[in-house]
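Example 415.
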Amino acid sequence: MAEESVGAQSAETEPSAPTTVGPTTVGPRTIGPRTIGIEGLQALIDALAARGYTVLGPSVSGGAIVNGPIRTLDDLPRGWGDEQESAHYRLRRRDDDAFFGFAAGAQSAKPVFFPTDELLWRGRRSRAGFTVEPESAGANGAPAAESGPYALLGVRSCDLHAIAIHDRVLTGRVQADAHYAARRSGAFIVSVSCTDPAGTCFCVSMGTGPRPEGGSAARFDLSLTELLDGGHRFVVEVGSDRGAEVLADITAPPAPLGDLEAADAVAASAATRMGRTLDTDGLKELLYANVESPRWDDVASRCLACTNCTMVCPTCFCTTVNDVSDLTGDDGERHRVWDSCFDADFSYIHGGTVRESTKSRYRQWMTHKLGSWIDQFGTSGCVGCGRCVTWCPAAIDITAEAAALRGTTPPTRPN
Ligand code: SF4
Ligand code: SF4
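Predicted structure in complex with iron/sulfur cluster:
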C-alpha cells in the first residue's frame, strides 16, 4: 500500500470503487475513502487538537460510556462493549480491542451544543442603572468563555440525524438560537459507523442508520468505519473541505478495495442486528386517531414521570428560564435550563396546568415525537437511538407502545 497522504493527491478525480463507500466531492476535488491504522487515529486526534479543537468523544466513566475529553487513545473505550435492553445498561468486556464496539452511549451530542444550563446573560444594578456585563456575551450572543470549538469524535448516524433536527428546530425558525448556532458552526464532526447495535436500537426503522450517509443527516467532516479483520484499521470518508484539510495533516493512503468491501459488510451486518423495530407506516395518523385509547391509561400506570426519557433523547429540546439574584439583589443572572413535558409545571400557564395527568403527558410526548413533529418540522422527532428505552426506569418502550396502539407486538432480538 503506497504511503501517500491525502494532501499529496492531485486535483484529479480518483477512480471510484464498486462499493457504497464512495468518493466525496469536496470543493474542486473528489476525495476517495482512505485507510488509517491505530496510529492514524491518534494522529487524527492530535491534528484536531493542533487546530485548536477541544476533542470530545466516548469515554468510560461511572459504569457507562459518556462524552469526555479525548487526548489519547487511552481515553477511548477500547475493548468495551455494552448491553442495552429496557431499563438495562451494562458495560461488558469485548473479546477484541475495538474502540467503537458499543451502541449509542448514554449521552448524545445534545449536551455539547445545547447545554443543560446555559447562562443567557448576567446583569448588575448600580446607581448608574442596570447594565449587562459584556463578558457574558460573545460573538452572536454566545458566551465568550467557551472551551470550544469542539471536535466530536465517534458521532453515530442516528445522532447526526438528531443534530440535523436540532439545526432545524433551533436555527431554522425566525429567531435562531445564537448560542447553539455559534457552537454548531464551529464544530468538527467525526462520525463512526455502528458495528454492534444494542437491543434497544431501531435506527433502520427510522431510516437514520447504522452508517453515516448524508441525506437528511447533519454533515460529517470525516467518517470512520472500524475494521478488525486482518489488522486493526479505519476506513475514512471525507464529508467537507474542513475534513479534507485535517486529513491532509496525517498519513492516510487510499483505501484498498478489500477495505471498502469490508466497511460495507460491517454496516450491512449491523443493519440486520437492530434489537427493536418500529412500524412507521401511517404512524402519525394512528396516533392522531388514538387520542382516547385506553393504552394511555395503561402506560400512565407504569410511568413515573421521572423525565429520564426526555433528558436522554437527542432531539427533545424543552427548556425553561430561571432568573437568580444574589442576596443584595444587585447581581442577577438569567439561565436557560433543560425542562421536560413530563414535568407538571412545564405546562403551567396563567393559573393552571394544561396537562395535569401523567397519561396526558406521556400521550403528548409520544404523539409529538412520532406524529405532530412531522407536521411541525417535516420529520419524525425520533431517530431510533433507543436511549429512552434503555434509560426508562419503568422499562417503558416507545416501540412497544406504538405497537400496542396498532394491536400488535413488535419482534425484539435478545441482546
Ligand atoms: S416513560 Fe419512563 S423515562 Fe419517561 S417519564 Fe415515564 S418512567 Fe420516566
Ligand atoms: S424518542 Fe427515544 S429512540 Fe427516539 S430519538 Fe428520542 S430517545 Fe431516541
